[in-house]
Amino acid sequence: xxxxxxxxxxxxxxxxxxxxxxxxxxxxxxxxxxxxxxxxxxxxxxxxxxxxxxxxxxxxxxxxxxxxxxxxxxxxxxxxxxxxxxxxxxxxxxxxxxxxxxxxxxxxxxxxxxxxxxxxxxxxxxxxxxxxxxxxxxxxxxxxxxxxxxxxxxxxxxxxxxxxxxxxxxxxxxxxxxxxxxxxxxxxxxxxxxxxxxxxxxxxxxxxxxxxxxxxxxxxxxxxxxxxxxxxxxxxxxxxxxxxxxxxxxxxxxxxxxxxxxxxxxxxxx
Length: 270
Description:
β14 (253-258) and β15 (261-264) form a beta hairpin. This protein is of the alpha+beta class. The chain has a single domain, classed as Alpha-Beta Complex (Creatine Amidinohydrolase), CATH 3.90.230.10. The radius of gyration is 17 Å and the shape is globular. The N and C termini lie far apart (39 Å). Helix content is 26%, strand content 24%.
C-alpha cells in the first residue's frame, strides 16, 4: 500500500478488513456514537482556536488534549507511522497534511482539519474546512459547496441504496457548482478499524457498489477542487495536494445507516 493511501482509502487500495462489510450490533452502534461525540467535541475546540498566527502544531496539541480528556485515543497517531493526532491541510493541500510548529496560519487561508478518535475500541472520523480570518469569496463559495456536497451524500445514505448513489449525489452537486471531486481518495466504512468496507467514492454512477443495510457505519468525505481533480503526494510521503495548485476543500462525517435514515454521529452540536 502506498504512503499516499494510508489514511484515506483510495479506489485501488484494500481496506483494513478485507473480509468484507460488517453490520454493527446495537451495542456497537452506540460505541460509534460515543466515539463520534468525542470527534465532534475536538472539532468544536479546534474551530474556536483557529486564527491567524496560530501554528498547526498547536492545533494538534489542542486536539490531543480534547480527545484524551474524554478517555479516547487519537486514531491517526501512529497509523502506518503518521506522526500526529490530526491532519492539517492548507489551501491547495487536499488531505494528510502534517501539523508543524513551522506552519503558521495566515489571514485568508482555508484550513482542513481531519480528526479521528477511538473510544472503547470503536472509531469516529470527521473533517471540516475552516476559513482563517477573512477569506476570498471564491474560497468561501468552495467551503459552502463542499459542505453541502457532503449533506447531499448523507441524504443518499439510506437502506436499500448503493454506494454509487452516494457518490452520484456528491458529484452531481459539485458539478452543478463548477467544482471537480478528487477521485483518488474516497470514503469508507468505519468501526473497529479506521478503513473498512465498503469504499464510498465521491462520484457515480448511481446504482452500483455495495448495497446499504441497516447497521452499516460509513465515513463520507467529499474533497472538491476549484481546478482539476487530479492529486499528487509531496516529498513527505503524506501531504496530498492538487496537481495544478488549485484550491481544495474537504468535509467528512461518520454516519450510521438506520431504518429511520442516516444518523450522523460526528456533527458538532450548536
